[in-house]
């Protein structure tokens, strides 16, 4: 099992990793101020929308130290949510405990989980600068999970900005 | 002209900009920003930053910070490195001589 968590979204509503009926969950550690996270952002939202009706939950978490990086404040997160930039919950990990427990290191850092635990960890695809790749590594992992197959490429190197620890 | 590439090790972007500068045939010096004190002293808005004679090629009003710098490409996409065509144009505007285009 993946490490369970419950975190508040930008409106304060608690959201948990596990939810009955979900075939898989994508957990993306991301943030507001990282160019890598921003470059991949739309591709990741497309994945969230494309797999929503196939039982895939899509949770995005900001674990950065907002005191030193005000662009990652809850208010700044909420502004992006209110602007319609997120296709799923954007969660606040102010204690950074979830990022530490999951071993997240950069933004974006992408994890796919199913009933057995984490089955993919890495980057969305091989080039932040090429939108035509459509987060293909993440999509391939989800397709494997949904087909009941082992994930063929279970790990790639996450690329991005270091998580800003306290 | 003194071209400088300022970078911070917590961000993986600077090798790509170094490659861009080498590809344009621009001699440059590298300056690693290690601490918040360095960032403040150098008015470093994020990594990577390219300066010519001390002037940022892409002026920013971001405060000094140990962070990755956000560039906006010509088509509006965000990127950790500048568009190479914009970098070339900025270097030329700053009076740099490019030995390769």
UniProtKB/TrEMBL annotation, chain A:
SUPFAM superfamilies: Thioredoxin-like. GO terms for molecular function: antioxidant activity; oxidoreductase activity. InterPro entries: AhpC/TSA, PRX-like1, Thioredoxin-like_sf, Thioredoxin_domain. Residues 1-147 form the Thioredoxin domain. Pfam families: AhpC-TSA. PANTHER family: OS07G0260300 PROTEIN, THIOREDOXIN-DEPENDENT PEROXIREDOXIN. This is Thioredoxin family protein.
From TrEMBL, chain B:
It comes from the Bacteria. This is Thioredoxin family protein. It comes from Solirubrobacter phytolaccae.
